[in-house]
């Protein structure tokens, strides 16, 4: 039985950066075809869909150098080698938004751009938010503004492209959408099992 895994014939290039590594390998595919394939190796990212007690979603507006424009995104950050994604996002949501979440629910995970990267996004719903009196300092390379939208307002932005959102935020919004609808039909705050320490 033939293997379904490509065989590395030659490692052509490897570069390790601050957030991810980049490699180029000469491969033989299971069908016999050979060629060079480029790949970004990434530890993964953790993302929060934060909702305030009055039903507003908390997003960040920040400049993204790669696309040369500002994007609207849910708070997120790179998973460090010593961390679990849940630890990462608890830190990131406070640093990026100044909110602390008491209630957390796992929404799922998904590959971000499997055509050229092995990065996975681990998405969480964060509720029962409290504004921190003294939020942690943001990273020096971050230029962030906070934006609040109702789910209906944000969905309109997604479809009209009036303001650009990134793919991980759009995907995570739809993963969380059922919970927004549940909250709306219940007419009160959703209660989840807390993962807060």
Automatic annotation (TrEMBL):
Residue ranges constituting the Nudix hydrolase domain according to the UniProt record: 40-171
Listed cofactors: Mg(2+)
Keyword terms: Hydrolase
One Pfam family here: NUDIX
GO molecular function terms listed in the Swiss-Prot or TrEMBL record: hydrolase activity
InterPro entries linked to this entry: NUDIX_hydrolase-like_dom_sf, NUDIX_hydrolase_CS, NUDIX_hydrolase_dom
Superkingdom to which the source organism belongs: Bacteria
GO biological process, one term: ribose phosphate metabolic process
Protein's name in the database: NUDIX hydrolase
Source organism per UniProt: Euhalothece natronophila Z-M001
């Amino acid at each position: 039985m033939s293997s379904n895994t490509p065989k590395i014939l030659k490692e052509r290039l490897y570069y390790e950066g601050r957030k991810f590594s980049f490699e180029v390998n000469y491969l033989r595919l299971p069908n016999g075809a050979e060629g060079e394939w480029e790949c970004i190796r990434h530890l993964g990212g953790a993302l929060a869909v934060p909702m305030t007690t009055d039903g507003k979603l908390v997003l960040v507006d920040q400049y993204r150098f790669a696309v040369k424009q500002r994007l609207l995104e849910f708070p997120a950050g790179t998973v460090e080698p010593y961390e679990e994604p849940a630890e990462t996002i608890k830190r990131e949501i406070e640093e990026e938004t100044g909110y602390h979440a008491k209630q957390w629910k796992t929404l799922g995970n998904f590959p971000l751009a499997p055509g050229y990267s092995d990065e996975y996004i681990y998405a969480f719903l964060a509720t029962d938010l409290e504004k921190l009196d003294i939020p942690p300092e943001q990273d020096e390379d971050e230029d962030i503004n906070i934006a609040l939208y109702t789910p209906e307002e944000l969905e309109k932005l997604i479809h009209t492209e009036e303001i650009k959102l990134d793919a991980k935020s759009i995907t995570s919004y739809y993963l969380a959408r059922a919970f927004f609808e549940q909250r709306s039909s219940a007419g009160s705050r959703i209660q989840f099992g807390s993962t807060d320490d």
